[in-house]
Specification:
Helices cover 32% and strands 23% of the residues. It has 173 residues and is of the alpha/beta class.
C-alpha cells in the first residue's frame, strides 16, 4: 500500500460525474490513502448526475488544505456548484497555497481557475472549459493526463486510469 499515511480530499457537490468520484475514491483507498469527501456540508448525501448518492465526510469550512497531501476535484456539473460556495473555493485556495497535489479532471479545472494555481502551468480539461483554463493562465493542451509540478489534470472519464496512476505516482515520492 504505497499511500499509507496519505490524506486525500475528494471534493464533492451535487451533479458529480459518477466515475470521476468513485474511481479515485476506491483506487486511492486501495493504495492505503485516507480519502475524505469534502463538500459544503458534512454528513449530507450529494446526488450524482444520474442520482447516485455520495455522502460527504467533512465540510470545507471545517478542514484545512495543509492537513491533506492532495485534493481531487471531479467533473460533471459539481464544480459549477462548488465554485458558487466561498468555503469550497477557500479550501481549494488553501490547498494551492499549501503546495499539495492539485488534481482535477473534466470540469474539475473550474475550481483550479478560482485560484492562481494554473498560471504558467501546462494543463488539460474537458474541451468545453478550455478557454476558462486559458484565461486562468494555463497553457492548455489536449492530452489524456498532464502533470506539471503539483498540478495533475485530465480530460474525461476515459482518462481516469492515467489520472489516478499519476496521482499515485506523485504521492508515492
Amino acid at each position: 500500500m504505497r499511500l499509507q499515511g496519505t490524506r486525500v480530499a475528494l471534493m464533492l457537490a451535487e451533479e458529480y460525474q459518477e466515475l470521476e468520484v468513485w474511481y479515485p475514491y476506491y483506487r486511492l483507498g486501495e493504495e492505503g490513502a485516507e480519502v475524505v469527501r469534502v463538500a459544503a456540508d458534512a454528513g449530507k448525501q450529494y446526488p450524482s448526475k444520474l442520482g447516485y448518492p455520495c455522502p460527504s465526510d467533512a465540510a470545507a469550512r471545517d478542514v484545512a488544505g495543509a492537513d491533506f497531501d492532495a485534493v481531487v476535484v471531479p467533473g460533471g456539473w459539481c464544480p459549477d456548484f462548488m465554485r458558487r460556495d466561498e468555503t469550497m473555493i477557500g479550501f481549494v485556495r488553501q490547498c494551492a497555497d499549501a503546495g499539495i497535489v492539485l488534481a482535477a479532471i473534466c470540469h474539475g479545472g473550474w475550481m483550479l481557475c478560482c485560484t492562481d494555481a494554473l498560471r504558467g502551468r501546462r494543463a488539460t480539461s474537458f474541451a468545453a472549459i478550455k478557454h476558462d483554463m486559458l484565461n486562468a493562465g494555463a497553457e492548455w493542451v489536449d492530452e489524456p493526463c498532464v502533470v506539471d509540478g503539483n498540478i495533475i489534470t485530465s480530460r474525461m472519464p476515459d482518462d481516469l486510469p492515467a489520472f489516478c496512476a499519476a496521482i499515485i505516482e506523485k504521492l508515492s515520492h
